[in-house]
Amino acid sequence: MRCFQLLALATLPLLTACSGGESNKDPVAEAKFQNEKRIGNEAITEKQERDAEFMVTAASSSMLDLELSQIAQRKATSPDVKFVAQTIVAEHAPMQTDLKAVASRKSIVLPANLGKDQAERVGELTALNGPAFDRKYLDLLDDSHERAVNDFDDMSDEAYDGDIRAFAAKYLPALKKHREALEQAADKLPK
């Protein structure tokens, strides 16, 4: 009997490791999957599918920008980079709140956490210090904001849903302003 109990205790970690599939899923991919599943079941148009894809992308990108900027508020060495980080945190937090509200009204599932690729970028940035940190932070945000500006610009005109169109139009100017601030801060960093 004692041998059976020891065997059961020894296999318990293996069983729990195998059943941990839910926690290993990429939150961004899972949100996209849930939206595609709902859309497929409700005979929704291709434009509505694009709206949902935009919302998931906007949410995951904004979460990444917030995470990177919170780190930069602590680790950046350049005052200009710290200022950019503070601006991003101050302006992306309300955007995330609005995004969640619109998504909730439209029954769009958003990711709860960063995706795997995004988490890797956070890890890469966290490992750096000094001017290398500042440069990498600005590079990551510039890339993110370039895509976001393009997406928000497109969706402010082309979103099927009026609320999503209004959301994109509302935050497009702030994203453009962030891009300009990123470029100015990058120009001031030592080469």
Give structural notes.
Helix 4 runs antiparallel to helix 7. The N terminus is likely disordered. This protein has 191 residues and is an all-alpha fold. It has 8 helices and no strands. The longest helix is centred in the N-terminal third of the chain and has 30 residues. The relative contact order is 0.14. It has one domain: Up-down Bundle (Ferritin), CATH 1.20.1260.10. 84% of the residues lie in helices and 0% in strands. It starts with a helix and ends with a helix. This is DUF4142 domain-containing protein. It comes from Hymenobacter volaticus.
Short description:
The chain has 191 residues and is mostly helical. It contains eight helices and no strands.
Portion in helices: over 70%
CATH topology-level fold name: Ferritin
Number of domains: 1
Alpha-carbon distance between the two ends: 70 Å
Keywords:
Ferritin; 0% strand; globular; disordered N terminus; Ferritin-like; DUF4142 domain-containing protein; DUF4142
Q: Which helices and strands occur, and which strands form pairs?
A:
Layout: H1 2-18, H2 21-24, H3 27-42, H4 46-75, H5 79-105, H6 116-126, H7 130-158, H8 162-188
Helix pairs in contact: 3-4, 4-5, 4-6, 4-7, 5-8, 7-8
